[in-house]
Amino acid sequence: MTLRDLNQPVGPEPLNDAELAALNAENTGFAQHIGMVITYCSSERLECYVDVEPHHLQAAGIVNGGVYASIGETLGSAAAIVTSGKLVVGMSNNTDLLSSVTQGRIEAVATPVHVGRSTHLWRIEMRNGDKLVAVTNLKLMILS
Amino acid sequence: MTLRDLNQPVGPEPLNDAELAALNAENTGFAQHIGMVITYCSSERLECYVDVEPHHLQAAGIVNGGVYASIGETLGSAAAIVTSGKLVVGMSNNTDLLSSVTQGRIEAVATPVHVGRSTHLWRIEMRNGDKLVAVTNLKLMILS
Amino acid sequence: MTLRDLNQPVGPEPLNDAELAALNAENTGFAQHIGMVITYCSSERLECYVDVEPHHLQAAGIVNGGVYASIGETLGSAAAIVTSGKLVVGMSNNTDLLSSVTQGRIEAVATPVHVGRSTHLWRIEMRNGDKLVAVTNLKLMILS
Amino acid sequence: MTLRDLNQPVGPEPLNDAELAALNAENTGFAQHIGMVITYCSSERLECYVDVEPHHLQAAGIVNGGVYASIGETLGSAAAIVTSGKLVVGMSNNTDLLSSVTQGRIEAVATPVHVGRSTHLWRIEMRNGDKLVAVTNLKLMILS
Description:
Four copies of one chain form a homotetramer.
Chain A: H1 17-26, H2 30-33, E1 37-41, E2 46-51, H3 65-84, E3 88-97, E4 105-115, E5 119-128, E6 131-142
Antiparallel strand pairs in A: 1-2, 2-4, 3-6, 4-5, 5-6
GO molecular function (chains A, B, C, D): 1,4-dihydroxy-2-naphthoyl-CoA thioesterase activity
Pfam families (chains A, B, C, D): 4HBT (PF03061)
GO cellular component, one term (chains A, B, C, D): cytosol
């Protein structure tokens, strides 16, 4: 995500609808391939959702764990980019899988655990309805 | 993956071509959505590849880290299923991202770290050419 | 920790001083070797501290990362034991190291992320003064 | 570990006995507190052991998981220091706990997974006799 229209780091004031639309429009590639839509973005919290479709499942009919790791990776990377205003590289993605999902919407919330000069740690909680189904801890390096 | 045609746990003797084809044919959903093809499968090692396409990238033009986590999750789950002959559930997916990939093929090899009665730990190394680009450590619970 | 004097799972009502003393008296071995003292214990939160001493440091004069992982492991295990009322086994300890500590007190707070029948996931945040210095995500199996 | 007597990065040629003794003599603090002794050190592999004593156990009589994380942290940090010849900082310690130990010796072997300019990833396998009991994946930042 290069965010050509968003040259400054995002602060606690959330993006407005036009800025969110621009952010989602730039979030192509794998984000789009898994159907991720960002719905809230400030330096304190990002939110997105993915509507479960047959191509998210494994053969036993539940959402493939890679989908959660991918949501965590993509939302956490967006978080580090927009809050640092710099390019970032993911270093490690630790995703705990807590409960199975067969259908409906996966909603994710990213919050910062550690925002340093050279690294960030973001925590992304994913829910299906009220149920916590997965958590990603994503560590990223901020490129200077 | 339910492996209806492969009722017994796979041993050290690798699957033949027809069995591999059956395994890939069952590996629908997200495995197919990310373009994963399994090329070797025994109780000691599984191998697969994904050819990088634009829908695997993030906006900066490199493969989204979620792709590696998804390859690790999917190949490691297949590994636990075929070697245990039982249903399994992923518990945690820890993926270290080591180097960026922009094009070509990602080749993955899964080897068992710990094969217990109630849990498995598989390690999946991913390479682009000769370069190690990511490693997943996948812990799974074996359902009885 | 076998908690012979605490036969029932601990609920949201915190332990009183006598019960805390009993809990700490049972928490021998490595917990004692690293100087850990539990100061609060309910099903919703556990707290402990370790006062930094020379034997916690590495040669460069900062606290060895293993100390944080050990605090996370020990407090998270206590948490799973007292809230489940059963024996537990640690499965994986993922500790993110965020900031260096040279002296003073490390204070830790454990909160439940997922409390299932067969597994628990606890998150342990460690601070030095106001600064978050490490976070452990500890997954445990509950033995029936 | 500052390795005042070992000013150059260690290469594939292992340390001799006098150099190993110097390395262990510098490895004070927590390494000494947990009883760790390094027995082999080259850029391709480090080895150490810890003899299990009552202060390594938790109340149920098995080795506290924090001991394995601490061995992984300390041996992996030594590995990054001696092979880079620079100061390093641990970033994340992911330790999988595979089997319980009640007595005897824990032997650990560290091998490099990724040796980059700014980060290292080391993998530390720990055994009790022939049995693999724990594995640490330790990510470190190399300070310039």
